[in-house]
Design brief:
Helix content is about 0%, strand content about 25%. The chain has about 650 residues and is mainly β. Strands 18, 19, 20, 22, 23, 24 and 26 form a seven-stranded antiparallel β-sheet that branches. A five-stranded antiparallel β-sheet has the order 9-10-6-14-13, with no helix packed on it. Strands 7-12-11-8 form a four-stranded antiparallel β-sheet, with no helix packed on it. The longest helix has 4 residues. It is elongated.
């Protein structure tokens, strides 16, 4: 699988001052845009038939030809595959544009551990020469060859060479004092590796001395190259174990770039091992300041109303508004004779009132005719809809009421005259003061709560109150008297000495071998020796003085954690007795490997993490074995590590 890509530029050389006319940089800017992993059968990662990673197809721009591609801490570049057919441009992997990218297929180391790797691809180098000016920097590739490989350069009488590296690797390439400066400085390169030589002044001296040293500082080859351009100096020229691959003229500017790509390769084979047990939880961190109070969420639905309480007392009625002018009174007809009223009967019970019908529109008022005899009241009809109410007229001032005189006989009611038109309604009078509030009725059932609003941000925490004074401590009671010591009894007689036991076997005992480093260790892992670390077991392995039946019985590792504790693993490595490469031994795990049952698992904890594992690991019989500790994090890094192994020189 491939993680999200993170690209950055690695400037391995300083940017020299740009000269006039805006000359462009001498090195192309490499850019890795996509990487696809294939197995040995050409099946891409993600296909159900995919087995183990074997090849990388790398798409991008600005690659050198051929490019140098490095993976993780490997000091030698990846091998360019003979079969480049995994590169597909018809169509290319989306979203790439086949017209603007190149592709190269490389082989992966076999086997390759599961993990995160930093893939670096070198940018292209232009083909400049002395025709473009004297050099201020030269780029060489190390081949490991002897002086006979120098026959194709054109520096007759000026070039000197002695010594034979014999394809040794890794090596250091350094300059003579004051001649030039090499990059990488004090670092080693492998076969096919690249080194850049910078002039210490504006130009190289005419005779520039270069030495090739092994890892112990021994000189393997001594070269003298004429760099003043009085003799030809062309890209492709060979000088012993060095081939000129880049020529940077004065004033052209120097910028070499490596495109970087974060690559995760997993899984390699079967399912991962069991998850280790979680370590103890760290201490609770201090609480931060409480945040601001968040805005209130929307109000929930209104609950059902409870039963209405009793009606409060009606307040005093306000003043009556003034009545409007009364319309003209119709003429009153002669009143007919009033019949004698009979005795009033008992009031009947009022029946339940029926539903009120919708009032119909009120018809025009007809003329009132003569009133006939009062008939029996018929059933009440539907009430019509009330018409719009007119404005209420102002009420005129009421005169004094005279004393009622004696009531005369009721005359007969005459025919009723025409009804006069109603005058406009007067203005509404002021509302009187509201009466006292009635008692509240019992509360109704509570409605269902509405949805809760979003939690607001917590406001800042208030200051802690001062502690009250501590109460006085009670007085200690008086200590009682110590009792008297009784007399010592008589000493018993010494019994006869037993017979001596048989002497034990003459064992050699166990020995302790320890390792340490104060350098950081990350997710790509490091092999730890005695005070140093490396990307290879063979570089830092500590030799064991034991042979024959010697066995390792126990491994204990402690790592220093930084501000963010990390999980990790530790594995004890020893020499690979079946290794056929005399120049490199990657070693083999002697303790349980990463993900295996019983492996040394480092669980994240504050300040430090410790793992220990008991096992039986046989050291090699011949030649004498060497040991290193491989330490790696899941993510992030450790600040340093120490480790010890317990060795039984004569075995079981």
């Amino acid at each position: 699988m491939i993680n999200n890509k993170a690209k950055s530029w690695l400037f391995l050389a300083v940017v020299l001052p740009m000269m006039a006319l805006g000359v462009s940089p001498a090195f192309a800017q490499a850019d890795v845009q996509e990487v696809i992993i294939f197995d040995g059968n050409g099946v891409p990662l993600g296909d159900p038939a995919f087995v183990d990673p074997a090849f990388l197809a790398i798409y991008g721009t600005g690659f050198s030809d051929p490019p140098e591609i490095f993976l993780g801490t490997q000091m030698t570049p990846l091998v360019i595959a003979a079969d480049q057919s995994f590169c597909s441009f018809d169509p290319p992997p989306p979203p790439l544009d086949a017209t603007a990218i190149s592709c190269v297929v490389t082989e992966l180391p076999d086997p390759i551990p599961c993990g995160d790797y930093l893939l670096s691809v070198e940018g292209g180098v232009p083909l400049a020469s002395c025709d473009d000016g004297k050099p201020e920097a030269l780029v060489f590739q190390y081949t490991g060859e002897n002086c006979d490989a120098s026959l194709d350069n054109l520096q007759e009488g000026k070039f000197e060479c002695s010594g034979d590296p014999g394809f040794a690797a890794p090596v250091q390439v350094i300059c003579g004092d004051g001649d030039c400066t090499s990059d990488p400085s004090n670092a080693s390169i492998g076969l096919g590796g690249t080194v850049i030589l910078f002039a210490d002044g504006n130009t190289f001296p005419s005779d520039t001395d270069i030495q090739i040293l092994d890892m112990f500082g021994n000189e393997l080859q001594d070269l003298r190259i004429h760099a003043s351009c009085s003799k030809d100096l062309n890209v492709g020229d060979r000088f012993g174990a060095l081939v000129l691959t880049g020529f940077i003229p004065q004033g052209s500017g120097l910028m070499q770039s490596f495109a970087e790509y974060d690559l995760t390769i997993c899984p390699i084979g079967g399912p991962p091992g069991e998850q280790g047990k979680l370590g103890p939880q760290g201490e609770q961190g201090k609480l931060g300041a409480q945040g601001e109070q968040g805005k209130l969420g929307p109000q929930g639905d209104q609950g059902k109303l409870g039963a209405q309480g009793e009606q409060g007392k009606v307040g005093a009625q306000g003043e009556q508004g003034k009545l409007g002018a009364q319309g003209e009174q119709g003429k009153v007809g002669a009143q007919g004779e009033q019949g004698k009223l009979g005795p009033q009967g008992d009031q009947g019970k009022v029946g339940a009132q029926g539903d009120q019908g919708k009032p119909g529109p009120q018809g025009d008022q007809g003329k009132v005719g003569a009133q006939g005899d009062q008939g029996k009241p018929g059933p009440q009809g539907d009430q019509g809809k009330p018409g719009p109410q007119g404005d209420q007229g102002k009420v005129g001032a009421q005169g004094d009421q005279g004393k009622p005189g004696p009531q005369g006989d009721q005359g007969k009611v005459g025919a009723q005259g025409d009804q006069g038109k109603l005058g406009p309604q007067g203005e509404q009078g002021k509302v009187g003061a509201q009466g006292d509030q009635g008692k509240l009725g019992p509360q109704g059932d509570k409605g269902e709560p509405g949805p809760q609003g979003n939690q607001g941000k917590p406001g800042p925490q208030g200051d802690q109150g001062k502690l009250g004074p501590q109460g006085p401590q009670g007085k200690d009671g008086a200590q009682g008297d110590q009792g008297k010591i009784g007399p010592q009894g008589d000493q018993g007689k010494i019994g006869p000495q037993g017979e001596p036991g048989e002497p034990g076997a003459d064992g050699i005992g166990t020995n302790l071998l320890c390792f340490a480093t104060d350098q950081t260790i990350g997710s790509q892992g490091k092999y730890m020796g005695l005070g140093q670390q490396s990307g290879e077991h063979d570089t830092v392995g500590v030799i064991s003085p034991f042979s024959g039946d010697a066995q390792v019985l126990r491994l204990v590792v402690k790592v220093a954690q930084g501000n963010s504790p990390r999980d990790g693993w530790a594995v004890l490595y020893h020499d690979n007795s079946d290794n056929t490469d005399p120049d490199q031994d990657l070693g083999l795990p002697l303790s349980p490997d990463i993900g295996e049952t019983g492996a040394c698992r480092l669980l994240a904890s504050p300040s430090k993490s410790i793992c220990e594992v008991d096992f039986v690991g046989d050291l090699n019989d011949a030649p004498i074995d060497s040991l290193s500790i491989f330490v790696v994090t899941d993510t992030g890094s450790f600040e340093g590590a120490t480790a010890c192994v317990l060795i039984d020189p004569d075995g079981g």
